[in-house]
Structure formats: structure tokens, C-alpha cells
Amino acid sequence: MSRVARVLGATLLLMAPCVVAAPAPAQDSRPPWRDCPDCPELVYIPTGAFSMGSSTDAYEHDERSGETPPLAVRIRRPFALGRAEVQKQQFLQFVAATGHQPALACAAAGDEPPTAPARCITETDARAYLEWLGSISGHAYRLPSESEWEYATRAGTTGARFWSARDSHEGVSISRACDFANVHDVSARASQLSVPHARCTDGFPGLAPVGTFLPNPLGLHDLIGNVRERLADCFTRSYKGRPPDERAWRWEGCTHAAVRGGSWRSRPLAARSAARDAVPLAAGAEELADVGFRVARDLDTADPAITSR
Question: Which residue has the higher pLDDT, 289 or 177?
């Protein structure tokens, strides 16, 4: 049995019962696909339901994250989600093709591998890239919503992280993180280890090429770790009043965007399925140094991604 199969098997065994129906986390029969040669790989995400957020008595919970009260969410239609975060080389290809000028110089800096995730990405940058993808693929791309992101990340699991229900706490070893996520761990410079960190070594003190780590049960990479992922929602301090489905929660006058997943420099508490964070819409280089994004797009029953697979 392969290492991936063993890990995914262990993940399934550690699942706890969910308060609402959850999608089967087994790989869908549809393989990943691209809508065009230069488009990111996509994964089919089925419909289903889950409990979004965490309760105050959860094994790990961050009151500052706004992840309570838990919300019963139903994903009413299938959608496609990027298999990994948008790579730097993919973003720079868009820049070269369109002449788009990234808002921050670090988005085009040459100090990361081309297959590392794009970073320093503003909302304007992300939306311009998505519009360009639409023009070359014939499909309307968008940012995922918070509910879609957490649903896909959990992939039917209910623990703090999709790979284990209870292997992680900042006072306890979080050794399995280094198999699945690029977070703040022993690989960081010694001077930075005063920050709570995972007690393992993944070999990457900074960004890692996308897809380096094992996927979640739906075949998605780097949902936790590497870069924080920009989402379509405005950030709020609770789930009260938000749509109980796949829709993004957005309004005029929004000042902060939601980001999810933690990054290579995130402490374990910030690198969980339920953990939430925010960045100002007018954020600068320091605040966006570890912010990237992943693509999504809608599907319907006539979409070739469904009918041809």
C-alpha cells in the first residue's frame, strides 16, 4: 500500500460522527482537469452538508478567530476548486500576457521557486487574474467562499485538521503536520522558534512548491499551510446572519477580506480547518506577504466537467 493510501486510510478511521450529513471523502471518479493548457488544475467538489466553525469547548478553539457559533451549512450545488494554490509562474504568465501591474512588488519578486504559490496578492490582483482565466478558458472563474473553502478542506472530517482529530495542540506534539502542511515548525530559523510551532521538520523554512505535501481526502493540496488563501467573503467576527449555504457573505462598505488556512509562518492554532483570519482591503506588503489564492468556478449539469466524466 502506498504512503498516500495509508495516510488517507488513517484519516478516514479518525473521522468522528458529524452533526449533519457530510460528503463521502473518497476521491470522486472524475479526475482533476484543466479548462485550458495554462489554467490551474481543478477538482470536482460534490454537494453535501457540514458544521462550519468550532464550538467554545472544542479541543482547539480561538475566540479571536470568529469561528463561533457553529453553523449548519448545506452546499447545494457542485463546484470546481483549484487542486492547489495558484503558482507564482502561473500568476507571472498572466502578468506577461496582460501587462497587469501587481499592486505590490513582492508579488513579482524572484526569490521563490516558480512552482511556489503566488503571494502578496491583493484582491484587485486576484480578480484580474480570474477575469483573464475566463477570457482564455471560456469559463467564469471566481474566488471560493468561506463556506466552500471549509467544506472542501474538511472533506467529511470533523477534527481540528483533516488529517487527524486530536494530534495537535500548541502544548502537545503536532508531528503529523509536516506530512500534510507547510506551517511554522522546527524548519524555521532558530530565532523564530519562540513562537508556538509544530514539533516536526518539513524542510521548508519558507514557501514550498505547491503539491509538495500530501493531499486531503478530496485530493486537494495545501489548503492548510504554505500561504493564507484569499476568499470572496468580507470578514466578520461571528457566523450570525451569514447564508447557511455556499454563498459568499459580502456587502458594500466592506473593509476586511476573509483569508483561510494559515501559512508557512502560522502557529498551529491558526492552521486549522475552522481557523479564520482577515486582511484589510488596503493592506500593504507586510500584511500580504503570506497571502495567495486558489481558484473556483461554478458547475452545472451541462458542464463538460460533469457530463464527460
Answer: 289
CATH code 3.40.250.10 for 3-301: no
Element (H, E) at 79: strand 79-82
Confirm if 244 and 74 have CB atoms less than 8 A apart: yes
Q: Is residue 304 a contact partner of residue 24, using CB atoms and an 8 Å limit?
A: no
Residue 120 pLDDT > 90: yes
Q: Determine the 3-state secondary structure of 177 from DSSP.
A: helix
Which pLDDT belongs to residue 113? 92
Strands 228-234 and 291-293: parallel
What span, in angstroms and rounded, lies between the C-alpha atoms of 176 and 211?
16
Residue 165 has pLDDT above 70, yes or no: no
CA–CA separation, 202 vs 213, rounded Å? 9
pLDDT mean across residues, the chain: 86
Domain residue ranges of the chain, discontinuous segments joined by +: 3-301
Q: Report whether 95 contacts 108 (CB < 8 A).
A: yes
Q: Give the long-range contacts of residues 123-129, CB within 8 A, separation 24 or more.
A: 123/230, 123/257, 123/281, 125/91, 125/100, 126/230, 126/293, 128/94, 128/98, 128/100, 129/86, 129/91, 129/94, 129/100, 129/293
Say whether pLDDT at 281 is over 90.
yes
- Least Cα distance to 108 among 91, 129, 128 occurs for 91
DSSP letter at 188 equals S
Distance, CA of 222 to CA of 8 (rounded, Å): 15
pTM over 0.70: yes
Q: What are phi and psi of 259, to 5 degrees?
A: -130, 155
